[in-house]
Design a protein that fits this description.
Blueprint lengths: L4 E7 L3 E8 L6 E4 L3 H14 L2 E8 L4 H20 L8 E8 L2 E8 L5 E5 L6 E2 L2 E2 H14 L3 E8 L3 H19 L17
Parallel strand pairs: 3-4, 7-10
Antiparallel strand pairs: 1-2, 2-4, 5-6, 6-10, 8-9
Length: about 200
């Protein structure tokens, strides 16, 4: 089996981000963004996707929005790169994950045709140390840069922290299974012969 690892460095006047991923890892994470709740979400994503994930994110302009956005972009790009031509993968997956009273669902097609639909149903203006709009933008930027089709929906819940955690975990589990090798699949899992 070909190694499915990648590393991406994204350096701008706003941020300096480095991300390394191993799709065939064990969920080992080393995350440093300086934003506690963001670190927590990314650690959960790595743990439940079983992707080894190393993220080092530094703000150059001290604007939190830029750091959150660029971190998500770089993680998405690194996973996309590690997937390569996506030969032999399962391709489709679905996960429904509860977090106490909240429930989130993710449906994914790892085709290289980006489309995303996101419904987080966040009500509070801030969750821990991240604003609502920055949290939503984190998810949006991650989904956009995975280069695939994803529908991620919080079905219901009362606690916004729980909603965000259920969402990231359902996304992680769906990616874990969609990116896994299918022993029956030979080559590209598409009738077109390419993704």
């Amino acid at each position: 089996m070909k190694s499915r690892k990648s590393s991406i460095n994204r350096n701008t006047k706003e941020t300096s981000i480095s991300v390394s991923v191993n799709l065939d890892g064990t969920g080992k994470t080393t995350i440093k963004t300086g934003i506690n709740f963001l670190d927590h979400l990314i650690v959960s994503f790595g743990k439940h996707s079983m992707i080894d994930l190393k993220v080092n994110a530094k703000s150059n302009d001290k604007i939190e929005h830029h750091l959150i956005e660029d971190t998500a972009i770089t993680i998405g790009m690194a996973i996309d790169k590690a997937l390569g031509n996506r030969s032999g993968i399962t391709r489709f997956s679905y996960a429904s994950v509860p977090m106490d009273e909240s429930l989130a669902e993710a449906s994914i097609d790892l085709v290289k045709r980006p489309f995303w639909k996101l419904i987080l149903s966040i009500k509070r203006n801030k969750i821990e140390d991240v604003s609502k709009e920055d949290l939503e933008h984190f998810f949006q930027s991650l989904l956009q840069n995975l280069n695939c089709c994803i529908h991620l929906t919080v079905k219901y819940g009362d606690n916004d922290h729980h909603k965000a955690e259920a969402a990231i975990k359902s996304l992680a589990v769906a990616i874990r299974f969609a990116s896994s090798y299918d022993r029956k699949q030979k080559g590209i899992p598409s009738t077109k012969g390419s993704m």
